Amino acid sequence: MSAPYPPHPAQFDRQQAVRIALDRGLYSVNQLGGDLADHAHRIRAILWSPPRVVIVGRLKAGKSTLVNALIGAPVAETAALEATNVVTVYQAGAPSRAELVGLDGTRRPVPLEAGRTVSLGAEAADIAYVHRHLPSLSLENLTLVDTPGLATLTVENEHRTRAALIDGFAQTRSASVDADGAVFLFDSAPRADEMDFLRQLGFTPLNTLGVLSRADSFGEGALGGRNPIEHAHAHAQKLAQALASTVSTVVPVAGLLAESTYTGQVTEADAIALHTVASMDTLELMDLLESENPQHLGPVMRDRLLDLLGEYGVLGGRAVAGRGAHALNRWLIEHSGIAEVKYLLDSAVQDFAAVHRADRILAELDTLAAAHPARQQIRTITDWVRSDPAMQPVLLYRALRAMLLADPHAPVVAELTRMLAGRTDAERLGVHPGSTPEQIAGHAGERLTQVQRRAMSTATAAEDAALAELVRTYTSMRRQP
Ligand SMILES: Nc1nc2c(ncn2[C@@H]2O[C@H](COP(=O)(O)OP(=O)(O)O)[C@@H](O)[C@H]2O)c(=O)[nH]1
Ligand SMILES: [Mg+2]
Known about the structure:
9-stranded mixed β-sheet; 52% helix; binds guanosine-5'-diphosphate; binds magnesium ion
């Protein structure tokens, strides 16, 4: 076997190390020549492109609004218009352009109107998804996938969402979006069919983020007795516990406030207009917002402010509007909760989406080996890739996925999750952060003995595999100090 490339990455982080381990394997597959060079090239392109996170939830949950807020441009059509009926992939790239990906995997360019994808009408029938490239730094590490949603007005939309996302669902692999993680939006408690759909996507809670959307109108809304965003926070905590086997956490978000700000729509003129109602008391203002001819604002500005800020933004934002559009925009961002979503997307979700991606690449290599005359050589390479210590998180992740399907309440699920989510060996073992290397090795040794004992009486094949992975991990931790 020829010398692997690139060089060993002691200085790189875990993600980079995983990618490099796989890249070495792909290089060796490439060296086998013939059609394997093409396969290696194709898989390598997947390896080095940003992981894809799909935004799922019912129609009108606020998915496209959140996508626009995250990208910082009004690219996704919001409200139930024609263009919301297809799955759209938003990926960093220049120049700004869009392609239609057919159900058979073929691609053709489609013109853009005002930066948005044109509505597709009858054409939509044989389209798997729209692939939109746009020069946006916020997409550099993560590709976002907007979906029409579930149980929408038409059965068609739901079918399309499933078809593009669920492996082997009614279409060819080449027309599949291949998502690596999900943001799951709901504006109250999610329903059983949504939970089922998420399970079918085959992720883990580590790469699935829950978002309690439209937090600004939660409960009784802006005009009720309780602050809707605070109310949403309290509810999100309860939901996070109830949905712990599906999502890592639940973050309340008022996407509209973030969208209006990050797409640059809230201007000085808006702040000035909003300031004119700053001294009104709430009841007076409520009447004004509903009146046919609102004094101070006029109907056009009133509608505009409600569209941009919602009732909550108008009521709460007017106090700071006197300090100008900058202060108003800051207030909107702070109250939107978008910062936490961005943070989690950029850290944990991105990280575990990358692990999911790596797992998929291993699966691609296995599929390739199964069907190819050079299967023996490919298997030698994949075995050797698997034995690279850098691949350990990927193998633990695979074991976790299998356990979630086989027996989601087994104790080993929590153990695998902790092993993956922990940033240090102490966190992975769940022991005191100040533990010495000797103590860590001691704990790992104890855990190893336990796991070996449990491995003698397992309930499922998935548990067998999970315990074998844990044995490997504890063994290497025990050796490490
Ligand atoms: N008040 C409020 N309205 C929102 C929020 N997010 C979305 N909306 C509105 O809800 C409607 C549906 O949003 P959209 O993003 O198109 O939902 P999607 O079908 O899930 O993509 C639009 O009219 C949005 O302006 C929010 O955080 N607060
Ligand atoms: Mg939408």
